[in-house]
Amino acid sequence: MSDKNGRYIIAFKRASNQSDGNSEAPVISSVIASADYVPHVSDIPLGYLYYVCCMEDSYDDQDGGMDGDGKAPVIYCMELQLIPEARNTGLGSIFMNFHEQIGLFFGLRKSMLTVFKKNEGAMRFYKRLGYSPDNISPSMCMTEKRASRFSYEIMKKDLKRL
Question: Helices H, strands E: what count in the chain?
């Protein structure tokens, strides 16, 4: 996936050089912006988050119609991918926390993402983080019969400064 305004955050493990003869080399885990990433031969990718700040349809009370056009500035999580070994370790939550903090930094009030309904683990994960179906999600703006033809939910979370 690529968008000229999109950005990646990458997580990887990198074995460090051991000069003391210890065969158990410690591993350094890092999460960095992709613009700063220079691959190393010992890098083991753990996952990435791809996001974009954009204008998105919004018909809720807070943002709906910002200037009457039904669009609102949001940070959109386009993809969150983790290798199986990195799942259920907290890395996904770290990625999403970064994602939300970036949105807050830019003064955005909402984070959005699209998730497949059949991906039950992802649905549980996003709900646990406080995401819920957005007003533009098929399940929220269509009859149940019509919405059942769609394989995804559009989720949102209001971003609040601490």
Answer: 4, 7
